[in-house]
Amino acid sequence: MLVERLGNNKVRIFISYEDLEERGIDRDEIWQNGRKVQELFWDMMERAYLEVGFEVMGPIAVEAFTMPTEGVVVIVTQVPAIPEEAERSKDEAEDEQIITVDPYTSFTFVFDDFENVLAAAKVIHSSFTLTASLYSYKDRYFLYFAEEDIQQEEADSLWAILHEYGSLSNTTIEMLEEYGKRIIQDNAIQTLNQYF
Fold it and tell me: Which domains, from first to last, does the chain contain?
């Protein structure tokens, strides 16, 4: 399980299929609201609190999508209470969850060497038009994707390609901006293909 904070009110959690199997949850079962899935969800929330300080208070929105061979990505967003909800008790508000399946908004992949970044950029460039920035931090390279709407099938393909050359990172864009070095802003995929 990998936790990444995306902002003050949003966290992304990656769960591998191995994690699900260890908990006795089938791939199809993840979309059902059974006891094991609920336990998994609250374990994720506890992990998010311990690792990145994300605390569930009030209503939340939960977005989830699967990758064919990798696992499940869950994005949890704290949503502001609307007036009717403000009148409810705190317990009622905390129990409210909105479940949707929707493409992600942003993510970061880390690569051990520059050659892997170039290889991934070459494959991605032929199939996708994406906004990505390249950073170096602690002797590794990070591609940060600030994505617009992307179709689920495209998302699955993109993640499969990226996982061949790198791995999902829990390093936030704020951390990269503050402590890393920005190499290419926004058009990293196009620039890498143009010059290498």
Answer: 2-100 (no CATH), 106-195 (3.30.70.1950)
